[in-house]
Specification:
Layout lengths: L2 H23 L2 H17 L9 H19 L20 H20 L2 H11 L5 H8 L3 H19 L1
Helix pairs in contact: 1-2, 1-3, 1-5, 2-3, 4-7, 5-7, 6-7
Length: 161
């Protein structure tokens, strides 16, 4: 593989790999670091890699590195700090308090949600991916994606209502 081919692969897949990792670990800086490490591993083994299956390889390496990071770290997920309210300046103090409480409950619910459901749900909502795109990324069927997102919505409904 040539340097230009690697650059093309990096340009095409870095953002989606970083987002995939972010949905698994909920920390942008860790996601960026792991994504860079994924591409470093690919660069180190550049001569022995088959570029036909590069996408699957990148996701496999990313998945393995996230699992490794989970084993090293005992830090709890903290989505609340990443949630940004828009238009909050137009709200009354009571509405701001209610919003902050809801945001904290939503963050807590995401934290309690199973990893596979959370991952599919966030890909659908944050990245606005279609079910078939999520199924391609995760290597599962569209039906499995539907089931995971339905389960996530039911879980959130019970936690937030």
């Amino acid at each position: 593989m040539k340097k230009s081919e690697f650059k093309d692969i990096f340009d095409n897949y870095f953002d989606s790999i970083r987002n995939y990792i972010y949905y698994r670990c909920a920390d942008e800086s860790i996601a960026s670091d792991i994504a860079q490490d994924v591409f470093m591993r690919v660069w180190e083994k550049i001569d022995s890699i088959d570029t036909k299956n590069i996408k699957a390889l990148l996701y496999k390496i990313a998945n393995d590195m996230v699992i490794s990071e989970y084993r090293k770290s005992t830090t709890r997920l903290d989505y609340a700090k990443d949630m940004v309210a828009t238009g909050i300046e137009n709200l009354s103090p009571q509405e701001i308090l209610q919003f902050e409480e809801l945001k904290a409950r939503f963050s807590s619910a995401l934290d309690e949600m199973g990893e596979v459901q959370r991952e599919a749900f966030l890909m659908s909502r944050n990245e606005e991916l279609k079910y078939h795109e999520i199924s391609d990324r995760l290597g599962i069927s569209v039906k499995a994606v539907e089931k995971r997102i339905t389960g996530a919505l039911q879980f959130l409904k019970t936690k937030l209502l």
